[in-house]
Amino acid sequence: MILWIVAALVFIVDRWTKSLIAAHFFPGQSAIVVPHLLWWTYVQNTHGAFGMFGSQPALLIGLALLVLALFAYAFRDAVRSSLLVRIAFGGIVGGAAGNIVDRLQHQYVTDFIDFKNIWPNVFNAADSCITVGVIVLILASLRADKKQLVTEVPELLKPNDPV
User: Fold this and answer.
1) What predicted TM-score, i.e. pTM, was given to this entire model?
2) Is the CB of residue 116 less than 8 Å from the CB of residue 39?
């Protein structure tokens, strides 16, 4: 249940922030939020993550759905057993849904978060939630692998019982 609540919240925040930017900025317009650090810059992004995969909305939507399906399969056990993984996956699902709706409606994704001096790409709330969610899933996976190793190694080191 928490996965879907997080997904819905991320989706709503993403759609709301994008609508605010689209209503108050012209494409390419930028405004300083925090001097020398953060700008709101309205970009109509027709490409995929980090400018990859060209400007083919159907392909990008298909890739997003494929990646979601792969993540759902790969982390199916972890989603059942870990609240943190459910929250992370909810962020990924909500973010992907927000960007997919943008592509379906406009043929582009509205990006606006711009750390010009730190990061070359403009992004949005959905992208942030997807990125944080993926990082959390990777860390959770590494942690699970470490726990499994800790329980398996002592078992391997036990002396063999004589037959």
Assistant:
1) 0.79
2) yes
